[in-house]
Design brief:
Blueprint: E1 3-6, H1 12-28, H2 39-47, E2 51-56, E3 59-67, H3 71-74, E4 82-90, H4 99-113, E5 118-124, H5 128-136, E6 140-145, E7 162-168
Parallel strand pairs: 4-5
Antiparallel strand pairs: 1-2, 2-3, 3-4, 5-7, 6-7
Length: 170
Amino acid sequence: MNQIENSTVKDINEILHLYQDAREYQYKKESVVWPNIPISMITQEIIDKHQWKLIINGKIAGIWATTFQDPLIWEDRNVDPSVYLHRIALNPDFRGQKIVKEIIEWSKIFAKSEEKQFIRLDTVGENQGLIKYYTSCGFDYLGMVNLKDTSSLPAHYAKAPVCLFQMSTE
């Protein structure tokens, strides 16, 4: 049985490993590569209960983070009640098994329980494969934007415009 639950500090090494796998995959796909995610950031997300994991047969199949605010990326749209998904990283052993779609289905339930109107995510750069994939998952592609201020964001946000995606919880 698949389980979704908050990550714990015991998961930090596995989380770091999955982020490294994701960076290697991004590099191989010639897309914008995530920077190293600081342990302090992951730890704070765990403390705040914003770091999640999908467990299949006792193994972490995927991880992601959630927030309820994302003003530097979503700017004026940040006023809309939303759940923002960040850094979805999959265990390579589970690629091709529709893990992201399972995460999105969970996020619909989670967003409604938090009385949010939208589920949102972004990607850096014009990654046509991800645009096609996220729209096939039910997201509306809102286009690409150049962020006004990336100084407080992870470094990869300064490298290219950002693609925005949104899904209604209705």
